[in-house]
């Protein structure tokens, strides 16, 4: 889809070259080859294709051809719990800001609404203003995703360290499995956000080194503030990564404890079952010379002995805290 984002008017689709006149921001969303060629015909520029935007070396992500700057970065997309990362291309020409993306992004949709809500006098009709505003909107959206991810980790932390009674131990294994999956998702999210922040930060550094805002002190100041915001968010991501690792270690530790409790239970059951079986085996032997064979109370003695051999070990194990919940 080939979209035009005019200032003071709703976004609309570009179907012919005349539709893109007097518009500073052109937006290609999962474009076809025909739409890319139409954009090239409108702007007179050569636009990168998706495989070029997915290159990882810095020289392929940031370069200049005459007075046109070509930028790209991976950008994380988090909608309804679904995490994906797609490349986003930014082409800055004297008269146009051109974005190439392959998914709907909340940040870009928010910027589009900002443009539509203002009149023609608004500064966002300027390409440099549009560029810095786009980067700021991306960083703000990444900050929102990080904030939600931080709340999710806090929730996971409360679940991991919540006290559990003996009645809940049967559900502990399933709970810890769900927590492991959520921690894995949080770790993937932190990695993707870090990659997106690194890409935006490199764009800001490149624009600063290229002196793109050299004649605009206000925009240079906003670019420096943007760099500080990205640095603070990177610190938050680092802290989040450490917390994910800590919670992962704690969860695995609780899983190990739960497995040890299971082994203790098996040990108790095995030990309790062995002694009465031994007694029953001894008195079940059919030898002719057995003094207890004709004893009147031998049967009851054997039952009592087997019962005592069960109860006494259980009492010892309970006093040692191997099973049960003595606090209740």
Automatic annotation (TrEMBL):
Recorded hits in InterPro entries, A to Z, give: CorA_cytoplasmic_dom (IPR045861), CorA_TM1_TM2 (IPR045863), MgTranspt_CorA/ZnTranspt_ZntB (IPR002523)
Reactions accelerated catalytically: Mg(2+)(in) = Mg(2+)(out)
Annotated GO CC locations: plasma membrane
Q: Mostly located where?
A: membrane
Q: Which GO terms describe its molecular function?
A: cobalt ion binding; cobalt ion transmembrane transporter activity; magnesium ion binding; magnesium ion transmembrane transporter activity
What does the record say about its membrane topology?
Answer: Multi-pass membrane protein
Q: Where is this gene product found?
A: Cell membrane
Q: Which UniProt keywords apply?
A: Cell inner membrane, Cell membrane, Ion transport, Magnesium, Membrane, Transmembrane, Transmembrane helix, Transport, Zinc
Asked if the keyword Transmembrane helix belongs to this entry, the reply reads yes
Nucleotide-binding as a keyword of this entry, yes or no, is no
Per the UniProt record, which residue ranges are transmembrane?
A: 265-285, 297-318
Physiological role: Mediates influx of magnesium ions. Alternates between open and closed states. Activated by low cytoplasmic Mg(2+) levels. Inactive when cytoplasmic Mg(2+) levels are high.
| Protein family membership | Belongs to the CorA metal ion transporter (MIT) (TC 1.A.35) family.
Q: What is this protein called?
A: Magnesium transport protein CorA
């Amino acid at each position: 889809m080939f979209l035009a984002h005019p200032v003071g008017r709703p976004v609309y689709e570009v179907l012919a070259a005349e539709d893109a006149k007097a518009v500073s921001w052109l937006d290609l969303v999962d474009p076809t080859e025909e739409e890319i060629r139409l954009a090239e015909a409108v702007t007179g520029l050569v636009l990168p294709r998706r495989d070029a935007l997915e290159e990882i070396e810095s020289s392929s992500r940031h370069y200049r051809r005459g007075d046109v700057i070509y930028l790209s970065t991976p950008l994380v997309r988090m909608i309804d719990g679904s995490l994906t990362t797609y490349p986003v291309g930014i082409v800055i020409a004297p008269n146009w800001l051109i974005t190439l993306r392959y998914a709907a992004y909340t940040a870009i949709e928010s910027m589009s609404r900002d443009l539509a809500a203002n009149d023609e006098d608004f500064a966002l009709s300027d390409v440099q203003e549009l560029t810095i505003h786009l980067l700021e909107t991306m960083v703000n959206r990444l900050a929102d995703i990080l904030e939600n991810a931080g709340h999710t980790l806090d929730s996971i932390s409360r679940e991991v360290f919540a006290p559990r009674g003996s009645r809940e131990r049967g559900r502990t294994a399933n709970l810890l499995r769900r927590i492991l999956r959520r921690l894995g998702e949080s770790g993937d999210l932190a990695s993707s956000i870090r990659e997106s922040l690194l890409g935006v930060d490199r764009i800001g550094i490149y624009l600063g080194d290229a002196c793109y805002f050299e004649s605009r002190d206000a925009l240079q100041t906003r670019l420096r503030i943007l760099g500080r915001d990205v640095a603070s968010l990177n610190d938050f991501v680092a802290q989040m990564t450490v917390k994910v690792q800590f919670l992962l270690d704690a969860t695995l530790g609780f899983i190990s404890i739960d497995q040890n409790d299971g082994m203790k239970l098996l040990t108790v059951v095995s030990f309790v079952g062995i002694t009465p079986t031994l007694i029953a085996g001894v008195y079940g032997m059919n030898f002719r010379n057995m003094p207890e064979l004709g004893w009147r109370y031998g049967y009851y003695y054997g039952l009592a002995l087997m019962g005592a051999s069960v109860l006494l070990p259980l009492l010892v194990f309970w006093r040692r805290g191997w099973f049960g919940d003595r606090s209740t």
